[in-house]
Amino acid sequence: MTLVKTKIGRRAFIRNTGLASGGLVIGFSWLASCKMTPEQVNSLPKEWFELNGFLKVGDNGMVTIMSPNPEIGQNVKTSMPMIIAEELDIAWKDVIVEQAPLNTDIFTRQLAGGSQSIRQGWESLRMAGATAKHMLKEAAAQAWGVSVDEITTKDGVLAHEGSGNSAGYGEMASAATSIEVPEEVELKDAGDFRIIGTDKKNVDGKKIATGQPLFGLDTYREGMLTAMIVHPPAFGMKFKSMNAESVMSMPGIKEVFRFEAYPEDVERQWSDGGAIPELVAIVGNSTWECMQAKKALNVEWEEVSKLESTSYHNDELAKLLEKAQEVPARQDGDVEAALKKASKIVESTYSAPYLAHNTMEPMNFFAHVTPEKAELLGPIQTPEFLEKTLVSRLGMPAEKIDVRMTRMGGGFGRRLYGTFAVEAASISQRLNAPVKLVYTREDDMTQGTYRPSYKVRFKAGLDEKGNLIAWHVRGAGTNDALIFENRFPAGAVDNYLAEKHSLQTNVTTGAWRAPRSNFIAGAEQAFMDEVAEAAGKDPLDFRLELFDRAINDPVGDPEKNDYDPARYAGVLKLVKEKANWGTDTGKARGISAYYCHNSYVAQVLELEDGGDIPRVENIWCAVDCGIVINPLAAKNQIEGGIIDGIGHSTYSALTFENGKPEQSNFDTYRLMRHSEAPKNIEVHFVDNGIDPTGLGEPSLPPVIGALSNALYKATGRRYYEQPFINDKPPLVG
Amino acid sequence: MASFTLNINGKKQEVDVDPSTPVLWVLRDHLNLVGTKFGCGIAQCGACTVHLDGTATRSCMLTVSMVGNSQITTIEGLSEEGDHPVQKAWLEVDVPQCGYCQAGQIMTASALLEKNPNPTDEEIEMAMNGNICRCGTYTRIKKAVKLAAKS
User: What was the ipTM of the complex prediction?
Assistant: First the structure.
């Protein structure tokens, strides 16, 4: 057992004084929002007692646990409450999970991004469960007149062996509300976990499989209007004029107007990146009617900055690859001198296009703004920052703004940028009416906030024994400088030079699942294979040699290196064993490993025979994310990241002609489909008891390298340009 | 505007809408059946899949005037208690990530199994190819379809 100070998020543990005498908490949204079975109704407690902001114990022993973070499909709505339930020592079957509202005083970091929910929530979630358990134990000790240290708990039951007393949590819940919040609290040892580390199914699984309303787009309210926006058709254009009259007379149309979601004086947050200040709104009774008016509306646009094309982006990025960075991002030793004396030099350039996020649920938000208050409900990864922008945009204090999160039909980074919610609020405020803003797929795909396009050039030098003596990487991206200079192989090569450039463009970009890593990992791991081949070494052993170097004799200050070489090597060794790397299966295989978002992943990918782009048959994946909270869901994330990485690098691209995206829906923007997906994915975890890290992103970046390397084995040609389907070299022979 | 009588999930429903309105928006905006999802509007993603006389159909391009007396089944009407073998298999395998596309996936899978109770892997893939899952749950979907086929 570990004693820890209850300092993190301590405000969460201070009870609402109004409830101090045994507070009844009512009005749960889940009661109103879904039809319950008679069994569920019968099992509901008559009274709920709030022991802290994260949980309420019912008089019958049921527990409601708040899931603090936005749910975008990464399964935190199940896994975060599991951590609380573990320390509370309640049976999982007695837990009801509810999405918490925005309240960072209680829940601190309420953001879905960077695979950080579990890692950053770990301590406060455990404390929430442990402090509540302590208060229940203290209440029982007082009731039974025994020492609290002698009371044990299991599955929601308090027991005192000496006196033979026992009671369910529900019986002590009322008394527990008047117990002092402990100054420090005991946490379980990992060996005593009964919920963490076990497979728990998605708490929303039944609602998903039966089509219950869960998502922002499913919001319908009495008197609600539907709104749509019209945005400029090209980056570099803005609104000039329109003829709204003909559209105003169309059935169901209420209002058509130009509006500024972001007037100049609005204080913007980082989450407002990509905002289009000036838009046209179409407001009507129904979605279809608004869509018809949108098609009919004639808007004139004017050019205000350069209308960029993909050829322009590619040319400019290529120019940047010829340019040294004035002050290199990192420099160890002397790369130039080392390359001069190298016996072999390998050099390659890799590139990738813009990508759209394409969440299956298009952007949308419900807003009801009146002079008194603002109600916002919808899919948002950054509710806290949205609220801050709304304070400025609506001219209202935060206390009057209620931001609530729905389950999201995908995030992938797109819903970090809540400009659509600000647009919904702006329209609602103007009309003083409840409004649901809905983007069409075309709006969603052509509005911006894309994964940047990238180019990177690597140059490596080997000595006569095949040792890596020089590594030079120079990368460039649109609005993004691409390179993580302190990541592997920094620290493992004597002569290392990392340079990076950003090309300023008016095509808006943003975080897309595993930002930067989603390209650089695949490029680096493909290049690593080229270098290993030139060295005449097995690609896996070649990597392990480098990690040995970083462990035993790191180059530069090891504190600066953004990875732990021992954990990196650990996943490679695990995947080597699980995939029987080194045995000839007669099939093309590739290996890759990468570290990002605090987790380590290594993969072996095996292709089926045949085809220009052969299908992926098997993937073995080794993951080190520390303690695994929910293996069933963790594997789902890893499988999803792998499919996402293979799918996008093989098939997807967003291109531009004169500022206009050339793809606007799934007929032209290709996403991976069932018959193209890998046949088998096997996931193995390193069991090391280290505090947990996240899984939403880390399995995606390396798999692109594993795919490239296996394609090389299958075709004899290296794949340098994504999407690989367009970089189709002739088969060897 | 015109009045239509639709057979949806075994019940007759009257709606007064423009004849060009797709069934997707009739279900969502007019009948409060929101399990059928909007994804692309051009029958490319499958999120809006319903059964039209038992055949998996993209409701985003099926106009209300085309339905006539055909029976429409939505995810809400697939089973009374959410216990259709495909729904049960989805829960057993714990398929969803974000969950948004899954109603469409389930409707396509259940229509497939109705016609072909023991599909091969290839037949599952071909039948399901019109349903995109952006989260990448394809391997679990196939596993769930095979599990449902067994039961």
Answer: 0.99
